[in-house]
Amino acid sequence: MSVIARAMGEGRKDYARQVCAFCMWACIATGVVASGAVLFFMDELLQWLGASADTVDMARSYLAIVFAGCPFGLISVCYGNIIRAEGQANMAMMGQIIGNGLNIVLDPVFILYLDMDVAGAAIATLIGNSVAAAFYIWYFLRGKSLLSIHPRDVSLRNGIPGAVLSIGVPAALESICMSISQMVANARLAAYNDMALVGYGVAAKGNMVTGIVWAQLAADLISLLLAAVLAVHRLRN
Fold first, then answer.
1. What is the DSSP letter of 142?
2. DSSP code of 155?
3. Is 51 exposed, middle or buried (0-12, 13-18, 19+ CB in 10 A)?
4. Which tens digit of pLDDT belongs to each residue from 58-97?
5. Of 12, 61, 64, 56, which is closest to residue 37 (Cα–Cα)?
6. Nearest alpha carbon to residue 156 among 63, 21, 66
7. What pLDDT, in 10s, does the model give residues 171-207?
8. How many H-runs (helices) and E-runs (strands) does the chain carry?
9. Within 10 A of 117 (CB to CB), how many other CB atoms are there?
10. What letter would DSSP give residue 143?
11. How far apart are the C-alpha atoms of 122 and 115, rounded to whole Å?
């Protein structure tokens, strides 16, 4: 996101297009690898997470469905941020509203009316992520964006992979550390009972929602201000 914002602020539109296209196909490749890894090591992962004999089948069902659509989830998150970097915060917000709103509407339909239990929640999440990803892809394909996701614009030159990884790896490590912390907490709580895990999960979700709101507001403001500063600096020079 910040790589594209800086490039556009400096007037390097071709470079920004190449970074955007690289991110699209990197999301797809990473999602496929992550899906395969989770599905292959499913039992070991669930054991590490502290799933009990009463919940392991439901957890396996949920993870299998959600991670089957991992590329869509990555595209939804990544391109919501990239579109903000282009200055189209409304379009980014619309994609998130469509995806999350559809998830919220489909959850009771699949879980309660179709009696699909946890699998229904997973399918609702998969559909929400897929629709949000499709919305963002449509945004670029309609031709009104300055950026691109076309394979012909993908480039490994000009330090593009390094620039993306220099921003993405620290953020990824932060998420991995948070996930490991949550895994350890789940494993400890599993020693008590399943209700302890449920209570912790509810509290963690509430904390996550609060953090996401402030993080997204800060990210939007910082990217726009950085682009404006770089544009002013370029005009003065």
1. T
2. -
3. buried
4. 888 888 888 888 888 888 888 888 888 777 778 888 888 8
5. 64
6. 21
7. 778 777 777 777 777 666 666 666 666 666 666 666 6
8. 9, 0
9. 14
10. T
11. 13
